[in-house]
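Hey, I'm writing a tutorial for new members on how sequence and structure tokens pair up, and I'd like a real worked example in the thread rather than a made-up one. If someone can provide the structure for the chain below, I'll link this post from the tutorial.
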Amino acid sequence: MTIFLILAPYGAYTLLMLVTSATMSVFVASAICLATVALDVVRGRSVKTLAAGSAIVFAAIGLYLALRDPALGPLGVKLSVDIGIFVISLGSMLVRRPFTLQYAVESVPPETAAMPGFLHANYVITGAWTAAALLMAAANLVLLYVPGLPLWSSLAVAFAVRNSAIYFTKWYPEYRQIKYGAPASAMPNAR
């Protein structure tokens, strides 16, 4: 369920980009991010860096489109979103608070979160998502500079990279459990 709430704004944004304006797509995605933040607050959980940062990224892009450059094409918007997510993800690691850590700490017992490898595992998982955002941005950048490529190629890269990151997020905790003998609950799960 957690992974669904994390990815819901991006799924809505992607689907809406196919049927409505980019401006509407990013504003709806920002509203969904804010709804997930509100849901966390109502449940007594911390405000997540990824959700709050994504709300800001989507809203900023929407304001830019509405006020400055409504002609920015879909590829420019997608590239902007991917770069924004990359900055949030990389930034969370640079400030020594990988964004996955907030989700993980809330889904495991305190003694598990205190384990030495727990923080390292979150850096690895956040690193996988950072690499995924970078690859999606690169795919959109290639489409901008090689206009003869079909649009579906960028979508295929985004689908493959995102699904690989989801798989890795589920697989890595199990791998650590087998390799290091940590309890199954030692790693965050992607439910």
